[in-house]
């Protein structure tokens, strides 16, 4: 296989990949937009698996008594609703919606949890009891103040919400936030001041709607939006079944109902996630549900219910868990809970993507620029594969030298393809030419292409990561198409230096002439970081090809004298 066929196969893989992604997005399975009915299940009547009672509204206090609390740290700004003590908004202060520019030096931060109807996503928690009062995620709590801020020099911030029943049962829901951390500790403290034993369960759940359909001004903007292809839905982990995704369209057909010890439940999207993490040794029940309220879109719930808690009169007990609302940073996630780093969803290509991400991360520590790190990665890979690539170019040069003799074989055998192939193989053997020399570089190129694509698409470190000049986001397409044009020029120069190989039929020759334009179109839609990789890689190959060709021509000239 010569270099020409290598390019053709690579182009075929790239085009096939684009078509597969587009087909999955446009024609693959999607959640059914269920029409809510008056008798549909509501949040007030969703049955909690593993516990006898339903999640009832609890307190009869009206909506007017509920209020919103703002809690700020150096990395998070939360909004907690006293109705249920639910976290209804989370703004990630280190991650702006748009890149910082001179015109927009302080863009709004990403809002992960959101109480807006179109993007509803909330982290809820509560208690349920079979025969007693219990504050669930609809009960109104009381708080001492409506604003909390982590002060300078302060490492932790406590936010207490209190509920008291007429019988004497008291529950304090305490959130603890830490400096520089996206992990929030939750402690539901039960103080039984009543005259009878209280039995119940603690639960934590994430509830959200499916993402609204994005609006694009043109088709190019639509197909270059890489967030369309990332996973958006629920996920969970158990030590036995490991990491499992639960798309919204499978909530009804394949509902989750599983006892788990040492796991977590989450809602995922590109770059960010929210996750409830119970204590490692706690035996919980994980479940999923679809909630329909009249006049609203379906809400999808993934829930963790803890074991039964029994509190005698005059005694206390508590239920703890951790809530993570933040970016998918692998170094941090793997220290929080087992398997949480798997939410960085590289899919089947993680075997290639994870090592590439690790190498890029190490290079970024040295350079401080992810674009420069990509360039260094190219040089490193070319250094490792230099010997194999050299063999590919040398084989191509030898085959061009054999072109007159191969043309003579064609004239001799005419349409007898079998004899023609046998004669060519004998010629290759005699001249020590390996036509398959281009296969190994292809086997290296394809995994790197796909692996790096997923790294650029799903690694939050590369989100809005600038390079130089006009490249302000390596995870987005080149806004001015400079890099795709550069790569096209590199391919044209390669074709000029290395003309069509011997034995190539007219159809392949036409495809080779068309390939630069085809690659220009393909790379219009890919992340600029990926195109940067292939521009630099193409230049390295071009220099190596020029060097090998020049050396071969010098050897031929010397032999002729």
Automatic annotation (TrEMBL):
Domain Membrane insertase YidC N-terminal residues, every copy: 69-359
Description of how the protein assembles with itself and partners: Interacts with the Sec translocase complex via SecD. Specifically interacts with transmembrane segments of nascent integral membrane proteins during membrane integration.
Cell compartments where the protein resides: Cell inner membrane; Cell membrane
First and last residue of the signal peptide: 1-22
HAMAP family: YidC_type1
Protein topology in the membrane: Multi-pass membrane protein
Name of the molecule in the record: Membrane protein insertase YidC
Region (Disordered): 31-54
Keyword Nucleotidyltransferase set for record: no
Primary location: membrane
Transmembrane segments: 370-390, 433-456, 480-502, 514-536
Purpose: Required for the insertion and/or proper folding and/or complex formation of integral membrane proteins into the membrane. Involved in integration of membrane proteins that insert both dependently and independently of the Sec translocase complex, as well as at least some lipoproteins. Aids folding of multispanning membrane proteins.
Keywords: Cell membrane, Chaperone, Membrane, Protein transport, Signal, Transmembrane, Transmembrane helix, Transport
């Amino acid at each position: 296989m010569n270099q020409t066929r290598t390019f053709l196969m690579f182009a075929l893989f790239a085009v096939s990949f684009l078509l597969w992604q587009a087909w999955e997005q446009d024609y693959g399975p999607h959640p059914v937009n269920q029409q809510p009915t008056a008798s549909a299940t509501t949040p007030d009547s969703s049955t909690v698996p593993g516990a006898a009672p339903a999640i009832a509204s609890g307190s009869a206090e009206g909506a007017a008594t509920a209020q919103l609390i703002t809690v700020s740290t150096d990395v998070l700004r939360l909004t907690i609703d006293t109705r249920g003590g639910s976290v209804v908004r989370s703004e990630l202060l280190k991650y702006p919606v748009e890149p910082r520019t001179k015109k927009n030096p302080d863009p709004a931060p990403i809002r992960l949890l959101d109480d807006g109807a179109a993007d509803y996503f909330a982290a809820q928690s509560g208690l349920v009891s079979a025969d007693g009062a219990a504050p669930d995620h609809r009960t109104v709590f009381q708080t001492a103040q409506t604003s909390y801020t982590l002060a300078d020099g302060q490492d932790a911030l406590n936010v207490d919400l209190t509920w008291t029943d007429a019988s004497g049962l008291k529950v304090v829901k305490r959130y603890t936030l830490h400096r520089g951390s996206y992990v929030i500790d939750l402690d539901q403290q039960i103080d039984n001041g009543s005259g009878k034993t209280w039995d119940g369960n603690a639960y934590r759940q994430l509830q959200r709607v499916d993402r609204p359909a994005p609006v694009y001004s043109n088709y190019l903007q639509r197909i270059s939006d890489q967030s369309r292809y990332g996973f958006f839905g629920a996920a969970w982990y158990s030590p036995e079944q490991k990491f499992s995704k639960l798309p919204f369209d499978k909530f009804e057909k394949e509902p989750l109902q599983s006892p788990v010890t040492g796991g977590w439940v989450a809602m995922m999207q590109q770059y960010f996630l929210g996750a409830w993490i119970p204590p490692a040794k706690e035996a919980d029940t994980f479940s999923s549900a679809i909630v329909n309220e009249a006049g609203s879109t379906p809400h999808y719930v993934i829930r963790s219910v803890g074991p039964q808690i029994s509190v005698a009169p005059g005694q206390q007990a508590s239920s703890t868990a951790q809530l993570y609302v933040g970016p998918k940073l692998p170094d941090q996630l793997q220290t929080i809970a087992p398997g949480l780093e798997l939410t960085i969803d590289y899919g089947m290509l993680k075997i290639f993507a994870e090592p590439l991400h690790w190498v890029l991360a190490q290079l970024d520590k040295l350079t401080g620029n992810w674009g420069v790190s990509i360039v260094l990665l190219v040089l490193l890979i070319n250094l490792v594969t230099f010997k194999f690539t050299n063999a590919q170019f040398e084989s191509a040069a030898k085959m061009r030298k054999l072109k007159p003799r191969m043309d003579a074989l064609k004239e001799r055998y005419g349409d007898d393809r079998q004899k023609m192939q046998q004669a060519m193989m004998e010629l290759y053997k005699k001249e020590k030419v390996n036509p398959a020399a281009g296969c190994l570089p292809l086997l290296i190129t394809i995994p790197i292409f796909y692996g790096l694509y997923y790294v650029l698409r799903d690694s939050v470190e590369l989100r809005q990561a600038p390079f130089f000049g006009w490249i302000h986001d390596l995870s987005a397409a080149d806004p001015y198409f400079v890099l795709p044009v550069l790569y096209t020029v590199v391919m044209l120069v390669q074709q000029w230096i290395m003309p069509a190989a011997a034995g190539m039929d007219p159809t392949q020759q036409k495809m080779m002439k068309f390939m630069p334009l085809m690659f220009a179109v393909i790379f219009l839609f890919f992340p600029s970081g990926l195109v940067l990789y292939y521009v630099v890689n193409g230049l390295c190959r071009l220099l190596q090809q020029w060097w090998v060709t020049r050396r071969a021509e010098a050897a031929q000239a010397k032999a002729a004298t």
